[in-house]
Amino acid sequence: MHATADWKASWKVRAVDELAWKELLEGLRAEHAALKDAVSRGLCWSDPMNLTGIFGQLAHGAWHLGALRQALGLVKVD
Questions:
Q1: pLDDT score for 77
Q2: What are the sequence ranges of the domains in the chain?
Q3: Intra-chain end-to-end CA distance of the chain, in Å
Q4: pLDDT tens digits for 4-49?
Q5: In this structure, are residues 34 and 26 in contact, taking their beta carbons and an 8 Å threshold?
Q6: Of the candidates 5, 16, 1, which has an alpha carbon nearest to the alpha carbon of residue 75?
Q7: Is the pTM of this model over 0.70?
Q8: Where residue 68 falls among pLDDT bands split at 50, 70, 90?
Q9: How far from 16 is each of 13, 19, 65, 71, CA to CA, in Å?
């Protein structure tokens, strides 16, 4: 998925409708569930690549959630 991602195009999205927002939230929930499942199955904690991946995912996810929190303060609902 990351190999085919169009990162520049992702920044062009400025508004979504209710259905698109629900789809985004569902995608976030699915990614969270997959990460949680991978951790619960047991990672090889002595493998530096696993540690880099899991901590990278956590930090990256935290950044995005913080950005969403800030952005939601700017959202105006009519």
A1: 62
A2: 2-72
A3: 35
A4: 878 888 788 888 899 998 998 999 899 889 888 877 887 777 888 8
A5: no
A6: 16
A7: no
A8: confident
A9: 8, 8, 18, 14
Long-range contact pairs involving 51-54 (C-beta distance under 8 Å, separation at least 24): none
The Cα–Cα gap between 50 and 43 comes to: 7
Q: Which residue, 35, 77, 40, is CA-closest to 57?
A: 35
Residues 6 or more apart whose CB falls under 8 angstroms from that of 51 comprise: 45
**Structure-block tokens of residue 58:** 């956590």
State the residue for tokens 């499942």.
37
* Single-letter residue type at 23: E
Overall size of the chain counted in residues: 78
Token pair listed for 40: 């619960």
